[in-house]
C-alpha cells in the first residue's frame, strides 16, 4: 500500500496512565480520541471524554469504563495491548481480509469494510476534520481546512489495488483534491461527464469514482460507486452525512440521483 499512515495510528510510544512518567500528549490524545469514538457506537459506555492530551481523572475513569465493557481488569492504564482494543476498528478496516474476483469487486468490498468500522471525524482543539480516521486517510493531515473525501477514496482504491499488487498512482496522482483527479480524468479520457452518463447509464460502473461538479473544471465532492439501479447510484463516501454534504463528518452509504445531480464519473478501468 502507498497510503500507510494508518500504521502510526495503531501505536502508542509507551504505557499511558494518570501521573505516568512516560506520558506523551499525542498518545493521550489518541487514547481520548478512540474513547470518544467508542462512545459514539456505545453511548451507554461512559467513555466519552475531552481530547486535550491530559491524562487526568476523567480520562482514567473513561479508560476504566472501556475496560469494563471488555470484561477486563479496570486499571485505568493504557498499554499497547489495551490500545490495540481501542483502535481495533481501524486495524480491521485497513488490514482485514478482503475478497473479490476483480479490482472493481475489491474496491467495493474494501469500501464496505471501512464503512462497517464506522470512520468518523472528531473536533479537536476546535478544529473539525480531525482525529485518527482523518489522519489515516489524509496521510497525517487534519484540521478544519482538510476536507477528506478524496483522501478516503484514494485509501480505498489504494488498498484494493494493493491486494492485486497494483499501484493506484498509475491511475491518478496522490492528492486530496477533487479538481486534480477530475483534471487527470479529462487528460486520460477516462472521465464521463454527467450529460453523457445521464443518457447512457451503462457507462457508470460499480467501483468507479463519482465527482460532484460545481462548474466545468471544478469538483467539490467525491465517493465510490457501489451499485447502479435505474436513475440512482448507491455510494460509499467520506466526509459527508445523511444530507450529502461535502464537509460532513463520517463515511456514509448514500443514494444519489445521477439524473438530477451533476455527477461526473472517473473510470478505474485502466487499472483493472
What does this structure look like?
- The protein has 272 residues and is of the alpha+beta class.
- The protein folds into two domains: 6-90, PGBD-like superfamily/PGBD (Muramoyl-pentapeptide Carboxypeptidase, domain 1, Orthogonal Bundle); 96-271, endopeptidase fold (from Nostoc punctiforme) (Alpha-Beta Complex).
- Helices cover 37% and strands 18% of the residues.
- The chain contains ten helices and eight strands.
- It has a six-stranded antiparallel sheet. The chain has a two-stranded antiparallel ribbon with strand order 1-2.
- Helix 5 runs antiparallel to helix 6 and helix 6 (103-116) crosses helix 8 (149-163).
- The longest helix has 17 residues, at 25-41.
- The chain is elongated, with a radius of gyration of 20 Å.
User: What's the end-to-end separation, in Å?
Assistant: 16 Å
* String of helices and strands: HHHHHHEEHHHEHEEEEE
Reported CATH architecture of the largest domain:
Alpha-Beta Complex
Number of strands: 8
Quaternary structure: single chain
- Mean of the pLDDT scores? 97
Pfam families: CHAP (PF05257), PG_binding_1 (PF01471)
Protein name: CHAP domain-containing protein
Organism: Flavobacterium micromati
Amino acid at each position: 500500500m502507498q497510503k500507510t499512515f494508518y500504521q502510526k495510528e495503531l501505536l502508542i510510544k509507551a504505557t499511558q496512565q494518570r501521573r505516568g512518567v512516560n506520558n506523551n500528549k499525542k498518545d493521550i490524545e489518541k487514547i481520548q480520541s478512540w474513547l470518544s469514538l467508542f462512545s459514539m457506537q456505545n453511548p451507554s459506555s461512559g467513555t466519552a471524554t475531552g481530547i486535550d492530551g491530559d491524562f487526568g481523572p476523567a480520562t482514567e475513569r473513561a479508560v476504566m469504563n472501556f475496560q469494563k465493557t471488555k470484561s477486563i481488569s479496570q486499571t485505568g492504564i493504557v498499554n499497547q495491548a489495551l490500545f490495540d482494543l481501542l483502535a481495533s476498528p481501524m486495524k480491521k478496516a485497513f488490514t482485514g481480509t478482503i475478497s473479490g474476483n476483480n479490482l472493481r469487486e475489491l474496491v467495493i468490498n474494501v469500501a464496505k469494510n471501512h464503512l462497517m468500522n464506522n470512520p468518523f471525524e472528531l473536533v479537536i482543539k476546535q478544529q473539525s476534520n480531525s482525529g485518527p480516521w482523518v489522519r489515516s486517510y489524509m496521510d497525517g493531515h487534519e484540521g478544519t481546512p482538510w476536507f477528506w473525501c478524496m483522501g478516503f477514496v484514494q485509501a480505498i482504491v489504494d488498498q484494493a489495488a494493493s491486494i492485486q499488487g497494483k499501484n493506484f498512482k498509475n491511475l491518478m496522482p496522490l492528492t486530496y483534491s477533487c479538481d486534480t483527479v477530475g483534471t487527470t480524468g479529462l487528460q486520460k479520457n477516462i472521465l464521463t461527464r454527467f450529460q453523457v452518463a445521464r443518457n447512457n447509464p451503462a457507462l457508470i460502473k460499480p467501483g468507479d469514482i463519482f465527482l460532484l461538479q460545481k462548474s466545468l473544471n471544478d469538483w467539490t465532492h467525491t465517493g465510490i460507486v457501489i451499485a447502479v439501479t435505474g436513475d440512482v447510484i448507491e455510494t460509499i463516501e467520506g466526509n459527508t452525512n445523511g444530507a450529502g454534504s461535502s464537509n460532513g463528518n463520517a463515511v456514509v452509504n448514500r443514494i444519489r440521483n445521477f439524473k438530477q445531480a451533476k455527477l461526473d464519473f472517473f473510470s478505474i478501468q485502466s487499472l483493472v
